Amino acid sequence: xxxILILINDAPYGxxxxxxxxxxxxxxxxxxEDVEVRIFLMADAAACAVAGQNTPNGYYNVERMLKFxxxxxxxxxxxxxCADARGLKNTTLIEGAEISTMAEFTQWVVDSDKVxxx
Length: 118
What we know:
Elements: E1 2-8, H1 17-31, E2 35-41, H2 62-71, E3 75-79, H3 80-85, E4 98-100, H4 102-111, E5 114-117
Parallel strand pairs: 1-2, 1-5, 2-3, 3-4
Helix pairs in contact: 1-2
């Protein structure tokens, strides 16, 4: 099974980097059952996994996009020190997203067939 790691560094809103990274993840999940999708949220992207996002009607919602990825079998990890630096330590996260470490991220990089950065 091919393993694809998608690293997202940017905030959930303000630019479309997180949106585009998740669009790719969701398309991979839909079209390629033989691919294991891994998503690592780093820096301001740690906020992508915060539960309870409320966006205006017609605007994309990163929480819904991440939930779709998780429901299709993707693994979602959040940089722990990035989350701490942004005051997200005690924030409710999307179910299935996990706080992680640089050691685990490093292992994902080494173990993945492709690494894409957004």
